[in-house]
Amino acid sequence: MTDKERIEQEVQACVCEFMHVHDEIVDKVKKVMPEEQELLELAEFFKVFGDSTRIKILYALSQSEMCVCDIATLLQMGQSAISHQLRVLKQMRLVNFRRDGKTMFYSLSDDHIQTILAQGMEHIAE
Amino acid sequence: MTDKERIEQEVQACVCEFMHVHDEIVDKVKKVMPEEQELLELAEFFKVFGDSTRIKILYALSQSEMCVCDIATLLQMGQSAISHQLRVLKQMRLVNFRRDGKTMFYSLSDDHIQTILAQGMEHIAE
DNA sequence: TAAACATATGAATAATTGTTCATATGATAG
DNA sequence: CTATCATATGAACAATTATTCATATGTTTA
Question: Per-domain residue ranges for chain B?
Answer without folding.
Answer: 3-33, 43-125
